[in-house]
Amino acid sequence: MSKSGALDLAFGVGGRIDKKEVKSAVEQYENYHVYFGGDEETRKANYSDMVNKYYDLATSFYEFGWGESFHFAPRWKGESLKESIKRHEHFLALQLGLKRGMKVLDVGCGIGGPLREIARFSLASITGLNNNEYQITRGKELNQLAGLSESCNFVKADFMKMPFPDNTFDAIYAIEATCHAPDVLGCYKEIYRALKPGQCFAAYEWCMTDHFDPTNESHQKTKAEVELGNGLPDIRTTKQCLEALRLAGFEVVWEKDLALDSPVPWYLPLDTRHFSITSFRLTAFGRFITRTMVKTLEFVRLAPAGSDRVSSFLEKAAEGLVEGGRKEIFTPMYFFLARKPL
């Protein structure tokens, strides 16, 4: 089960970082980004350090506010956020035709919420690839609690150089994870290499849409906020992702921005104008309570120095995501299904 208490949040901030070093880690992380004078090339060159710092700092906030699955989902009217997240995961499993006996890879698996749900749904055996030690440790705890330690496992590695032989997996998927790659073509080539011929790779990608105008200052501000608050070197366009898939050798079966058909906006849980009892911690009032609580816990030294700054850049991310969604310049659910030829 998710760590849902205030003290769980406080003690989790910083992950594997020494608690005395959290404030310094926050400063180093912030300095990678445009808001603090950083640039894209520096983020790409140091992506592993940047992304690891991000998830050490942010994971306990994610689990506190979002649960075990750190991703968005299209939503039907009357459907709860949790229900939509599970359905989004099931959709991916169905597109890949997952079933008992298949060996599957989850690229950038977080603490394993999706892989556990997909393993229960499909009965497939799933390996979660993650380069963050804190998230892997937490994921193993949750696998054991769920009784899935035999069918689900984790491997600590960089998805730009995966430690698997060629043609290992029957299916591979990524949920809002390969957006952290400094080079999407290099990432897709590694996935292609590890996938068996004739099998499929499916993903939900974070992308700028065709409505994004790189010469528009407001659009660039929104993009920078999303990058800062989510540990991203850069956000690619849907066309860039599609081209990278083809250059990597994949045949694209079908692709679509699933945000376009969502009856309920995907960003609604983060919209401060929206109130929900079931997602209370994500509402404006819920987030105000969380910020106040984090400040208090940091003041009394139960949370490490720098915790409030983590809360602040995550707030900035939420603002950017909502603006990106409203302007339709950003999507967290550009879906594609691609096949490795025989």
TrEMBL record:
SUPFAM superfamilies: S-adenosyl-L-methionine-dependent methyltransferases
Entry-linked Pfam families: Methyltransf_11, Sterol_MT_C
One GO term describing the cellular component: endoplasmic reticulum
Record keyword Lipid metabolism present: yes
GO molecular function, one term: sterol 24-C-methyltransferase activity
DNA repair recorded as keyword: no
Family note: Belongs to the class I-like SAM-binding methyltransferase superfamily. Erg6/SMT family.
Protein's recorded name: Methyltransferase
Designated gene of the protein: LOC103717656
